[in-house]
Design a protein that fits this description.
Layout lengths: L1 H13 L11 H10 L3 H21 L5 H14 L5 H11 L3 H32 L6 E9 L2 H12 L5 H8 L3 H5 L3 E6 L5 H7 L7 E7 L2 E11 L3 H27 L2
Antiparallel strand pairs: 1-2, 1-4, 3-4
């Protein structure tokens, strides 16, 4: 019966000539962002880019043609745009022009130059003084709200050999740790709460530590892996973090001043 109805409806639709789907214009895209209540999100990003360009101009930061060419070649190689035809096809798929694409690459180069200009020397000096902060750890945790549950979980792991993953799924109040069986990712020590850094500073891989009390509750932790300090790998991440914090704070202050 259901199949008969579906076939009848399909035949009715096919009797009409459906209109073609026309390609959205820039005006259509903006109208969609407004009607879907997303315009503010993208407006903020556009304002940040304009702000960055203005700051770079004030500081005399520019991009040479050679730098733009090198970055463009690297982009094409990364995206497997080896020939002209592949590049043009990709541009068409993205609905952008060569000028749009070049403008985006230039902006990224200017962002990198601005990050270096603002924070490069500070990051290098900070690294020499605080190398331990640039160590990274792969960490799992079970976060509970009271000491009774924390003690119960710790005992189950250490004395009864109950699976850390299973206990995280059952007890953890942290969304990420509960969803991932306890695993909360790879972090710089400087990103972690001081109580946790102190507790895991001498811990070995695979060791379970806790419960440790913080303002969030009680943490039972396991060190999955330690990564030695390698500044060449972590420097860009630190620069990015500092730059994003500076950008958020600066644009927020300027917005408040204009209100």
């Amino acid at each position: 019966m259901t199949e008969t109805l579906e076939n009848t409806q399909l035949e009715s639709v096919q009797e009409f000539v459906l209109p073609e789907i026309t390609q959205a214009t820039d005006v259509d895209v903006i109208a969609y962002l407004r009607s879907s209540h997303k315009i503010a999100e993208y407006a903020v990003l556009a304002e940040q880019d304009a702000f960055i360009l203005n700051v770079c101009q004030r500081f005399g930061l520019t991009v040479t043609d050679d730098e733009l060419q090198t970055a463009g070649d690297a982009f094409r190689l990364e995206h497997k745009l080896i020939g002209v035809s592949e590049t043009l096809t990709w541009l068409q798929q993205q609905r952008i022009s060569v000028e749009d694409w070049s403008r985006g690459i230039r902006l990224e180069l200017l962002k990198n130059k601005l990050k270096e200009y603002l924070f490069g020397d500070a990051v290098d000096a900070n690294y020499l003084s605080n190398r331990q902060h640039y160590q990274r750890v792969a960490l799992s945790q079970i976060l509970v709200s009271d000491l009774t549950d924390a003690s119960k979980v710790t005992y189950a792991i250490q004395e009864s050999n109950v699976s850390f993953c299973a206990l995280a799924l059952e007890y953890s109040k942290g969304k990420q740790s509960k969803q991932n069986g306890g695993f909360v990712g790879v972090h710089f020590l400087s990103e972690l709460m001081p109580e946790i850094v102190q507790a895991i500073s001498q811990a070995k891989e695979g060791e379970v530590i806790g419960p440790i009390q913080t303002k969030l509750g009680y943490h039972i932790l396991r060190i999955e892996k330690r990564f030695p300090s390698d500044f060449s790998e972590s420097r860009e991440q630190v620069l990015k973090s500092l730059f994003q914090n500076w950008l958020a704070n600066t644009t927020s202050m300027r917005t408040e001043q204009h209100q």
